[in-house]
Structure prediction request, 1122 residues.
Amino acid sequence: MARVMLGGTLKSLAGNTPVLEVDAKTIREVLDRVGEVYPSLLPILDRVAVAVDGQIYRNQWFAAVKPDSEVFILPPMAGG
Amino acid sequence: MPLEGDIAQRKTTFKQIGTRPIRPDGVDKVTGRARFGADASAPGMLIGKVLRSPHAHARIRKINTAKAEALAGVKAVVTRDDFKDRNDALRDVLVNCMARDKALYDGHAVAAVAATTAAIADKALKLIVVDYEVLPHVTDVDEAMKPGAPILDKTMFTNNVEPKPTKPSNVASRCEFALGDIKAGFAKADVVVERSFKTEATHQGYIEPHACLANLGPDGQGEIWVCTQGHYMIRNTCADLLGLDISKLRVTASEIGGGFGGKTTVFIEPVALALSRKSGRPVKMVMTRNEVFRATGPTSSTSMRIKVGTTRDGRITAAEADLRYQGGAFPGSPVELGAMTAFACYDLENVKAVGYDVITNRPKQAAYRAPGAPMAAFAVESVIDELAKKIRMDPVDFRLKNAAKQGTKSAYGPTFGPIGLIQTLEAIKAHPNYRAPLGPNQGRGLASGFWFNFAGQTCTTLNVNLDGTVALAVGTPDIGGSRASMCLMAAEELGIGYEQVRTIVADTSSLGYNDVTDGSRVTFASGLATIMAAREVIKKMCARAAKTWGISADAVTWEDGQAKPAGSNAGNFKPMSFKEIAAASHSTGGPLAGHHEINADGAGVSFATHLCDVEVDPETGYTRVLRYTIAQDAGKAIHPSYVEGQFQGGAAQGIGWALNEEYIYGKDGRLQNAGFLDYRIPVASDCPMIDTIIVEVANPKHPYGVRGVGETSIVPPMGAIANAVSAAIGVRMLELPMSPPRIVHALDSRLKKAAD
Amino acid sequence: MQFEAPETVGAAVKLLAKASGTTRMLAGGTDVLVQLRSGTVEPKLIVDLKRIAELGKIAPEKGGFRVGATVPAAAIGENVKVRKMWPGVVEAANLIGSTQIQGRATLAGNLCNGSPAADSVPALIAASAVALIAGPKGRRKVPVEKIIVGPGKTSLKKGEIVTGIVLPARPARTGDAYLRFIPRSEMDIAVVGVGVCLTLDAKGVCTAARVSLGAVAPTPLLVKAAADALIGTKVDAAALAKMAKAASAACNPIDDKRGTKEFRVKVAGVLARRAAEKALKRARGN
Prediction:
């Protein structure tokens, strides 16, 4: 089960949840599970950044998540 | 993941990468042949101008445009009534382009006209009668958060706070990033420093004002020529705001005179299209510098509290930040990125960063290199410097002892891969600047900084011409020498000369979607797509050679720009050069082209450490930067001159931000210094020769190891310069800019305090 | 808008005298063009002075110089004789704007623009320069310090033109200097400007002095109290301190985007002292 943590605004939106354990093979599956547990996050889950084992992905449904992966869901990010 | 396999084909030795050829756009730029935003014209063209609110906050009761419309030569007038109201993610973007019920800041667009000449357009603006009900305003972030502050949006209640607020507020939302237990961490500290800081808003200061030429016909087909960091963004946003099909709007990016993040959104473009649609004529709009300052997107101004504790032997036990960023009249300040990056340079067990996104009567902030990070870094690095002094530890050693490294759980959550912070610190420590003797009234300061770097949607096509030259089309406007880097990467892969590759920025109808040039992404992402497109061409060329020789495609390899039989078993054929295969292409299967589209990720976080020496005139507060040295991790420098240019540019902008640049609002809420005379960016003689050290810790997610470099360099300068100024005058400077009146005031206050 | 480029002073005066509405004279144009572009003025008549030959020259005048109204700052800087006699005036003229601006900007224009922050004006006042004026009622001479009467306002009457500035012959053992404060290194506008001119006797005692301040009041100031602090002294540290205090006391600045009141008052004293030290060094060498 991958360990999923929420960062920043998302954490507060989800009611300051601790770690969530999900069974998922891809980022899309992680986001689906998280959306089921925290419907309050649904409006922004298609815009979030997701860090899998330290690597940050944006809009990357199919990036692989391993059973022992550490996943962070982070707020939408952009640079200049 | 398509990338993983290809990344295995990593290159570590290069023939052309790392050389410094002349940039392909250089001659056009120095001879004036390059065409920028304002350089386009069209038959029958009108000139568009915007009427802007003189009030910081006012209800717009009525707009009467009748007299303006009646003026001979005026062909169209648009107001809020010409844009459909909406309630989605683009609402704020639209309201920022054209005010609706209220003018929210000095300079907010209220109406626009298109006329046959600029003089008529100016005259028409004066004939528009706007009935304002002036409202109380607020421009300071701390004032805006106070109970009783004028409320900008009565429907806004602070998000993410418990219990749910019952009163509207200018605080749009709160965010928090935390690890460990800061209370326990501070309990373990021998020394704790807690300080409050403020920074004023700065502008990117790009030399080219926003400009465009829009043409939208009655059939709904349109074109825009525009100076922007992202023409696909212009296309998609404008099509949405004007109710057009995306395919019907073709956008061409002009040459660009600076962006730095400020040209990643729309301002005049939807207005120009609306005027064109209404008048049936092409409409050109060029902002004045006054408009650029008042009505584009400066940075947030901020108010921050930082608290850090350390043991006597230099291990940080806890760190805490409260960050309050105002982002103008709409939510969306980069405070969350500030909270994420504030302590990213440090390996911390106990850390907490809280951010508040605040709205005020100022223009809607836009990105500016590493948005949100520089202000927090200024505050944090000031406190780190003070702690190092308190425990009598060398500031580099203190940072080294606490530096983030591979395997560090970052303060914003994820664990770092290979990173180069320690290398930048060691490089600075070894540099002669670190030991140069200092005279009276001189001080030395250093600071580190972090930025994420992003990659994103990218689409690139590489076409081979019959003469063996290559036309490379990318969809990312070149704001920092990226065409030179693209040419180098294509030439390196194909084994041809740099001069044989010509890179263009294609229009939106010629290539698939590309994200804006932002997030330090282009050399990484368009470079990656270019390498992949080149490899596709090589594969096709090998197949053409195989067919020519009558052998299997597997039996052909590519070496030094030539297709060769893989070994003696494959047969004995004279290798075919890139040029020969290109020349024969018409008869071997038609044109040769490579293409790559990708949503790239992994632009590779990057760190920098800046060191600077200053001299402060204690009687006038005038600060001169004497020496400046930068070490930054670039992963791999494709064209070192442009990597160094990015480093130096960040430092130069940082010198301005640290010493003189600021948005000055009067009591009336109007911007007092909307011009380059009183908004002081550094001139050349304000900057010393900025020395650079390129650290190269390869990014595993790029075939050459490239990391983004464009933004990190704006993160450390304010901290480094503040530490140097504070050392020179013996007073800790807590506000930016450290303008001469602020320095003199700080010195006089200290004298006064001593006398009391 | 009417644009005229007469070839004689008389013709220019005639045009201006009979004009109605706002008028502007064009010498270097470095202020007028900015005003036109920003829309702050819409003159009915612009009279270009550059075709008037006599205004384009630097000529000797009673041991000093007559600098014509259209002579650009760069030409003044290149004139070895002027530079040697009035280095403070030249250094002020060569601080206006940028190198490019100095190729156009003129002393007369800098004066007639009426800005309290004009760089060359305190230096001209310190040097006892005189403005040459031509008008419908003939020609007259007026000390430079009497020209600017308020921000953007001059004592010139309708139809009058400043045709040139006279820099007088420099007395023996006299030196002048101009210093200004700006927050960056160049291309800026004075937050405080100070012109000082002083004369010594054979024993090194100051016999005459003029101290002028810019950007610290609605008009450039000639500060008698500051000069008096130097006269009769050997311009030693005590005299300089007294003079700096008098300079600060004379300031009547505003808090604005360019600096606080507190800052301007303090820096006026600092720069007055430094300018006097520089002028003193020059006086000793003359």
Summary: Residues 27-37 of chain A form the longest helix (11 residues). Chain A has three helices and five strands.
